[in-house]
Amino acid sequence: MVIDKEALIEFLTQRPIFAGIPEQDLSRIANRMEEFHLEANKPVFSHGDRGSVFYFIYSGRARMWSLEQKQEIDLGELEAGDIFGEEALLFSRPRTYSISTLEDCQFLTLHKPDFNWLIRTYPQTRTYLETLAHTRQQARSLRFEWLQRGEVVRLMTRRHPAELILDLLKPTLALLIAGIILSFTSIMGALDSLRYVAYGFGFPLIVIGILWVIWEVLDWRNDYFFITNQRVVWLEQVILQSASRQEAPLAAIQSVDVSTSQIGRIFGFGDVFVRTFTGTGSLTLTSIDNPKRFKKEIEELLFRVRGKQEETSDARVRQSIRQSLGLESFDVEDEILHIVEPDAPPKQGLLKTREVDGDTITYHKHWWVILSKAWLWLLALLGTIAGVIALAINDFIFLSYTFPVSSTLFVGTLLFFIFLGVLTYQFLDWKNDIYKLTSEMVIDSEKKPLGREITKSAPIRNIQSLEHQRKGLLPLILNYGIVRIVVADETLTFYDVGNPALIQQDIYYRQEQLKLKEDEAAQEKDRAHLSKWLQTYHDVLQNELEPPPDESGNIG
User: Fold this and answer.
1) What pLDDT score does 126 carry?
2) What is the rounded CA–CA span in Å between residue 478 and residue 223?
3) Quick one: pLDDT at residue 1?
4) If we measure between CA atoms, which residue out of 204, 238, 207, 195 comes closest to residue 220?
5) For the chain, which residues score pLDDT lower than 70?
């Protein structure tokens, strides 16, 4: 089919690559594009081809994949609005992936001369395409395990380097102070005591400053922000341990806002606020490079998602009407995105801090909590056992009866059971402090062994705010902290729980799932009312408004 010029301009207007380009310039770009149609299950190009064409998908879906050691590696699906083929033209190298159609596709193409004209005339398009090419290259090499089947990384970035420079000011100041202190040692002369004090203070401060710098650099490098065709993700890699992930599914996003400071406007970075319809799953992505581009990318995907949701809703209404009129029904393809369930943590040891039983997740406090309380009693227990064994060896092997055997066994057994009893009490106390999450409720239960049990609960739908914190170096290293849940005038706090970011995501997932189910139930109820109304209208039209047949059997 031939694409109408106005429809083509409207299509280009919605693409993030052309953000900020006036409509008259988009018309110039459109004049250089060629249309290209390809049937389903046909190759567009293959890995290793010499590329000379850049593609837009105007309609249809395509598959991106690569071939490694004679095995196909799926890289996700592309749909109407997506672009590909930029790497070969930008960097003058062979194709690094393959594209094949999943259904009949209509493409818009730019050949190499027109592509070069585009990135030369509008430099912002080159910047966008270089970021996209880098994102796809990183996604192929890192192969993020949390990506779902068919999910494609659209944009991957981290905090702006200016944020790192600001973070480095404090450790740099510490190193500067250490340098000043040590420099004074050369003029202190015979004041050895003062020189020793300066050395004792200055050298540790230098070590702390250097370690601080390394920490800030690694912390900056390990924070990533992603936009996929299903969600917005903040991936935070904490040093010495696994990553935590926070996300906002596209299906749940209500709005995207950008905030920039004066410094941010100068250097081109700012904060992006992604708000969801429940509010608790909202993300604040700080100091992102080119935040307006990040926002435009999300908004373009939201436009697609809402278009699919409207198409699905209209199809279901049509199906409901056909069923009410006794017509043949048809299958409706569900295009509404669902919330992606958080990944389960890696295999846990003896002291499990997260247990899943059907729809119920039970959380315990971090293993460090019981270890910090019980380590002294554990050492005492082990010391008692070792002492009894040592005395037994001394008495029965070396025949050196230091203490009576009966007394040794009595005291050793008494201490053993005392220390074991204390450890058992500590373990039960840790085990009985549980936090539960069901499909509809969040529960905080504390129970002392042989003591009172206090339980607080709240409906998930009533949660007003949700946050987690890890304060201090040890909680950061061991990944434990608190999760605070505000419900009306009450606050439920999960203290010292492991991986608090995951717990927050679990609660958020259940809340968003409940919201989607309630919305779907409400829509189904509305469709049922509409179908009933139309059935009644049809019955009245047939039985009451049509004239009765005459004696010959004819109507009218």
Assistant:
1) 93
2) 18
3) 65
4) 238
5) 1, 185-199, 237-244, 277-281, 324-350, 394-406, 408, 488, 545-556
* SS3 per-residue string spanning 254-267: EEEEEECCHHHHHH
pLDDT given at position 432: 84
What pLDDT score does 56 carry? 95
The per-residue pLDDT for 100 is: 94
Measure CA 4 to chain center.
39
Give CA angle at 443 (440, 446), nearest 5°: 170
Strand partners, 153: 228
Of 333, 337, 339, 365, the C-alpha closest to 352 is: 365
pLDDT in tens, 24-78: 899 999 999 999 899 999 999 998 888 899 999 999 999 998 877 777 888 888 9
Strand stretches in 69-195, DSSP E? 71-78, 83-84, 98-101, 105-111, 153-157
Say how many C-beta atoms besides its own lie within 10 A of residue 355's C-beta.
13
* Inter-residue contact 388 to 408 (CB < 8 Å): yes
Taken in order 118, 123, 126, 128, the sign of the CA dihedral is: negative
Rama region for 382: left / alpha / beta (φ>0; ψ in -120 to 50; rest): alpha
Which phi and psi (to 5°) does residue 46 adopt?
A: -125, 160
Please state, in angstroms and rounded to a whole number, the distance separating the CA atoms of residues 283 and 236: 13
Cβ neighbours of residue 65 under 8 Å, at least 6 residues apart?
Answer: 72, 73, 74, 75, 97, 98, 100
**CB-based contacts of 92, cutoff 8 Å, min separation 6:** none
Q: Which of 43, 55, 154 is nearest to 102 (CA)?
A: 43
Helix (H) or strand (E) holding 42: none
The pLDDT, as a whole number, for residue 51 is: 86
pLDDT at 125: 92
Residue 103, amino acid = E
Note if the pTM is more than 0.85: no
Q: What is the three-class DSSP state of 282?
A: coil
Mapped onto helix, strand or coil, the DSSP state of residue 75 is strand
- Residue 499's contacts (CB-CB under 8 Å, 6 or more residues apart) are 244, 345, 353, 354, 479, 480
Pairwise CA distance, residues 2 & 37, whole Å? 10
In SS3 terms, 328-387 reads as CCCCCCCCCCCCCCCCCCCCCCCCCCEEEECCEEEEEECHHHHHHHHHHHHHHHHHHHHH
Measure Cα distances from 183 to 193, 208, 210 in Å. Answer: 16, 18, 18
